[in-house]
């Protein structure tokens, strides 16, 4: 990955494992979004992690990627309300930011960090693959989970885009 990168750092801890052992594919996790080597602006003050339900987060983000690649803005509400993950494409790049509803309404997205579309796509695909590995390392029967299979199919379709190559 280049200096202009996008990646997730996710805390897969004992609480995650315990919830997965109970059949939950959607535990509440700490997610850190790293863009261009630094924390994504807009995370709560003094915190580099945001809490979100991991399956829903990745499903929401992965499902939004085709629209973003087609040039459409996406504002994805997070569990850690009131923040939204905002993706604004422009030519071959995407501005990524965490914004409150007030900032979105006011058009205040100056904190957005621009990354190449390819880096965004790779970062999301890599994060979903890491989630799948962490999930199935705890409980291999979840490989057959319908929701997880659907998420993987979405990621497979993202891999087929010109931006994954």
Explain what you see.
With 165 residues, this protein is of the alpha+beta class. The chain has one domain (6-159). It has five helices and eight strands; from the N terminus they run E-H-E-E-E-H-E-E-E-H-E-H-H. Strands 1, 2, 3 and 4 form a four-stranded antiparallel beta sheet that branches. A hairpin with a 2-residue loop joins strand 6 and strand 7. Helix 2 (54-69) runs parallel beside helix 5 (146-159). It is globular, with a radius of gyration of 15 Å. The mean pLDDT is 87.
Looking at this protein, list some descriptive labels.
165 residues; alpha+beta; four-stranded antiparallel β-sheet
Shape: globular
Mean pLDDT, as a whole number? 87
Low-confidence sequence ranges: none
Task: Quickly count the domains.
Answer: 1
Number of helices: 5
Largest sheet: 4 strands, antiparallel
Q: Strand-and-helix sequence, N→C? A: EHEEEHEEEHEHH
* Class of secondary structure makeup: alpha+beta
Number of strands: 8
Distance between the termini: 13 Å
Estimate the helix proportion, in percent.
Answer: 25-40%
CA radius of gyration = 15 Å
Q: Strand percentage, roughly?
A: 15-25%
